[in-house]
Amino acid sequence: MTEIFNRSEFKQTRKDLRNNPTKAEALLWTVLKGKKLDGNKFRRQYGVGIYVIDFYCTKKKLAVEIDGEVHDSKESREHDIVRDKFIRQFGIRILRFSNEDVERNIKGVLERILKELNLSDNHPLPPTL
Prior knowledge:
This protein is of the alpha+beta class. It has 5 helices and 4 strands. A hairpin with a 4-residue loop joins strand 2 (about 50-55) and strand 3 (about 60-65).
């Protein structure tokens, strides 16, 4: 399915994003990498179509997005709605947190992510096309 996931024409974009994380992304990655969060493997800057997800657990089909101030504008919110609708069509669930959430309450963010990961264990997603 390379025509949808991690498309080669966006490889450099994903690499640049991985090499230049925000403070909040770097902080969250220290906890998610290496299966540190309850044995769940997350990937950074995972491509879905023309979009890039900050963190993605492929096994549980869970995306975690960290939103900075740029996401506060009306245009950005409208873009996020379109983006999320596209991503969700592949059975991917999306959690969104602000930079401030991650920087000030990492424990709460991790608890919410774990809760969502555990929900997928109890309610498997239907197969996707």
